[in-house]
Specification:
Layout (H helix, E strand, L loop, with lengths): L1 H15 L25 H13 L3 H5 L2 E11 L4 E6 H14 L2 E14 L3 E15 L2 E14 L8 E7 L4
Parallel strand pairs: 1-6
Antiparallel strand pairs: 1-2, 3-4, 4-5, 5-6
């Protein structure tokens, strides 16, 4: 009997050409929203950023960053600005994703925006909760200033410069 049920389920899956363990993403037309976008809008870039953190997905995260990406933050103890490039950012983010039990990123309102259809600067506040384990939870409320670029309106936005304007 179980063999027959298994065979029926398998034939339905093969006939339907679907994988029940990796269902398709809803297509937004039926009232749902896509989890991942094509990044052709600034909002789409932020949506993919949140997705990458929520699901700890370095592939999606890497797709946000331009090849000449630069991250900058202020080291208040030493009173200097520190910076690193794309490779170091990917390494640090990979370690964060590996060590965190969960990440919850909330993008707040955009407080500054300038630019055109190919280059933009966006300043936005955020709330990030990093749960390493139930007794080790870090909450960060901060602000970022991102410089974005794309080669044409048909291409996705990429982050070229990330300035962390948080002061912790």
């Amino acid at each position: 009997m179980w063999t027959r049920i298994f065979c029926v389920v398998m034939s339905v899956m093969i006939t339907a050409s679907c994988n029940p363990f990796a269902p398709a993403i809803e297509d937004g037309e039926e009232g749902g929203t896509n989890l991942i976008t094509d990044q052709k809008t600034v909002d789409g870039l932020f949506q993919n950023f949140r997705y990458a953190y929520t699901f700890k997905d370095t592939t999606i995260y890497g797709g946000l960053l331009a090849q000449d990406f630069m991250f900058t933050y202020r080291d208040y103890e030493r009173r200097v600005d520190e910076s690193w490039g794309r490779d170091e950012e990917m390494r640090i983010t990979w370690h964060l994703f590996q060590n965190a039990g969960s990440l919850n990123l909330v993008w707040n309102n955009i407080v500054g925006f300038s630019g055109d259809s190919l280059r933009s600067s966006v300043t936005r506040s955020f709330n990030l909760t990093v749960t390493f384990n139930p007794s080790d939870i870090v909450r960060v409320d901060g602000r970022v200033s991102l410089d974005l670029r794309r080669s044409s309106a048909d291409h996705p936005w990429k982050i070229t410069q990330w300035k962390d304007e948080s002061n912790y």
